[in-house]
Please model this.
Amino acid sequence: MPGLSFAPDQSAALEGADALLAAAEWKEFRNPDFDAMRAALRQPVVFDGRNIYDPAVMALHGLEYFGIGRGVKVAGGGWLGHR
Model:
C-alpha cells in the first residue's frame, strides 16, 4: 500500500506522528511513558478507540485525549455524547 510504513517499536511509531490512535487493548500498550509519548508526537493528540487510558492521567501529561464513545466532559460537569 503506497504511503504505508512500519516501525520497529512503539517509540519509533510515535516519532513525528500527527496523533496516536489506540485501537488495541494489548498489555504492552496499557502503561506507556506518557511524557515520552507527548514529546514524540508532533501534536499531543490521542484518540483512544478502546478506552484504555484514563482521561485525567492524559490531561496531567498534557495530552489532548478523545476516548471514542466516552463523550466529552464540559464545564459544569455535564457530558456531551455517551458516558
